[in-house]
Each structure stands twice: as C-alpha cells, then as structure tokens.
Amino acid sequence: MRLDRAASIDDLRDMARRRIPRFAFDLVDGGAESERNMRRNCTAFEEVELVPRYMVDVSKIDTRTEIFGQTYNSPFGMAPIGMLNAFWPGADIALARLCKRENLPYVASSAASTTLEALAEAADGNGWFQLYVSGDGTVTEGLVSRAEAAGYDVMLVTADVPAAGKRDRDIRNQLAVPFRITPDVALGLLAHPRWSLETLLHGKPNIANYADLLQSATSYAEVQKTLITPAFDWEALQRLRDRWGGKLLVKGILHPDDALRCAETGCDGIVVSNHGGRQVAFGPATADVLPGIAKAVAGRMKVIVDSGIRRGADLMRAKALGADFALTGRALAFGVGAGGAHGAARAVEILELELVRALGQLGVPHFGDVGPEHLTRPRT
Question: What is the pTM for the complete model shown?
Fold first, then answer.
C-alpha cells in the first residue's frame, strides 16, 4: 500500500508491521501482559459520544491551541518513546524535525536512541523533555543540567514506572541486553532487508543519554535500575520542582488525589497516562479517569492526556472530557515505521484531517470551544 492510500493510523500500523522485524515491531506495538489495558485505552475513547449541533458556520476550522505560552497548529504532540530507533532507524530525528515543521511539540525521551541535545536541535524550540528519575541522584542531576543547557523549558517527569512492566511479547522474542542475534532474530533480519540495511547504516541503536553507564549492563534489571527508581516519592518531586526552573509536569497520573498533590507541589501540569498500557496491566483507561482528574484540578494546572489516541476525533473527545492538550506516541511511530519521515508526515496529516472534519461535523469551528456540554452524558 502506498502512503497516500493509508486512510487511518491503523493502516499505517499494518504497513509498519510488514516492514519491520517482529522483535522490533513489538517493542512499540506491545503492551503489558495480556495487553488488555492497551486495548482498553483505544476503546474507551471510541465509546465517548458527542452530540453534533447543526446550522453553524463551519467553513473555517481553527485547530490552533496555546499551552505553556506557545501556540501550536494542532492540540497534540509526540509522546516520548524510548529506543525508537530500534523500531525504525533514524526515527527520533525524523519525528523531531517533523514536529518543528508542523509546529507541534516533540517530547524527547531520556531513554531515546538519540541524545537530548541532538533532539533539542532538531525540534528547534518545539522540544519538551521527559525524565526518568534514576536510582542514582547524580544521573538524574546530570540529565536535568543537560536539559537546561540544551534549552528545554518544559519537562515531564515520569512517575508511573516504580517497577518495570512485564511485556510478554518481549519475553517471547527473547529481547535481551546486550542485544543477541538468536535464530528467530536472524530470520527476521533476512526477511526485512530494508530495515536491516537502514539499521546497519545508522548503527546499532542504544539508549544514547545513558550510553556510558549502560556499556557494562548484562540484563534488563540493570538497565531499569539505571533508568528508574522505586523510591521516587512526593519529597523527591518537591526537590525536583525546586530544582527545575521551567515548566514541570508529572506524567502517569490516574487518580484525582495525586493530581491535586501535584498542584500543591507547584507543578504546572500533569499528563493523565497509563504509559500506553505498557507498564500496568490492570489499571483504568485514561479516558475513563480523565474527567474526574480534570474536575479536581480545574483552573490550577494544565491537564494533558495520552494513551489511546488513534483518531482525530479522539482529540476532540479528550477536550470534551477535560484535557487541555494530548500526546500520542504510537500513532506517529506507526507512521515513521510505515514510511520513514514521509510516513510520519502522513500520520500527522491523517490526524489533522480527521480532526478538522470531526469539528465540522460537531458544529464547533474553534477547537478551544469543545467542552463537556458536547458529551451525550456527563462524566465524573
């Protein structure tokens, strides 16, 4: 299928699945355990019904959205994904440049395959930074200092990985650190020569911001110990708030009380997220908890949502449920996997075209005017 014939994000996912070896595709496509939570994220948004109003002039649709002092062309950005160059070589830079070109925020993962400095340069003013708090305080301070020096002024600290999730697909694929060439991996490489050649040209992907620290790692347990800590608590968040001079958001909030505590700590926003269903197998879908969280912190901080955004109408649904903005990771990743930089651009085009059409059908010419009054039934 040609990129211009891809009608949806699901079409791009199918194209990416055919172009990428299974072990690499599953890195992004997979979720925790049975993947119920990952699937529920999408269906929960699909189940949100909005009531169209007619005889409204929708000849001009405005999707521009302002957040943290910057106006973006659309109400979504690229969510952070670690090791994305293992999904498709060069994906990190391609997506950062795309977000600059399309005027969308790009959230650089601290576990990216590309350094945070290179991603800041590629995003050129549209970059946000996502931090995993390490068990080693010097590692965390080093990343925060580098983010400051690189010019990031919005930082998302991930709170929802006190323990790494169990991803069954990775176990079946025998994913290991350091990377091993198993018979199944070898067959996958032979069956996908384009991916193999591109990877050879770009070099073996690693976690670039931790490259020196991870050279001696022999297991995922060691990698996770460097990346995250189960000891990250409210006091640690307060210290980070006092340390970071820019906008600070907490990513991974699923309970109204936690959202309120973030506001009391002085955070500028939260990301209602369950890590795309990749970590916790038993939690709620983000669309189900978003209204209660948004109501709890209304007027006190920005509310962003991720996990499950696959359609332009999902952005409209998220706004009606109380979100100020949205992030999507897999949708744009499937695009880059389907066709590199051109595929990523197609993913953005699909979401934006769907959003414009959905706003016209809803009878709301300005995205900012979408609200809970458009829901078929109140959500709490």
Answer: 0.94
